[in-house]
Amino acid sequence: MGIPADMRDAWINRRKSLLIASPEEDRILAAKRCQQEGVRQGLKAASIACVASAVPTLVGVRVIPWAKANLNYTAQALIISAASIAAYFITADKTILECARKNSMATLQKPSS
């Protein structure tokens, strides 16, 4: 047995409406939002980098004699995935740091009561 989902959700929402969010909870929510934004921007950058590195790699393997002789399928996949992974992590890191900087500046500029 257990509490039905709709009753459980109603109880949780009722408890949340009675509680006032603490500054610590606000910081946690801001950090989660920054993290989600970083993931979103990182995925966008990784998909663009994947296409931008796949096209020249695949064309080069079919046109350039050296690449045709030396770059097998594994090497092609490594080239494409390395570009995508690097783009993801660099963009996600920059986005998270930028968002954290904005949050810290907002807290410094907020008048304390």
Automatic annotation (TrEMBL):
Signal peptide from the UniProt entry: none
Statement: the UniProt record of this protein carries the keyword Transmembrane: yes
Keyword hit for Transmembrane helix: yes
UniProt keywords, alphabetically: Membrane, Transmembrane, Transmembrane helix
Transmembrane segment boundaries: 45-67, 73-92
InterPro entries on file: Enod93
Domain of life: Eukaryota
Protein name as catalogued: Early nodulin-93-like
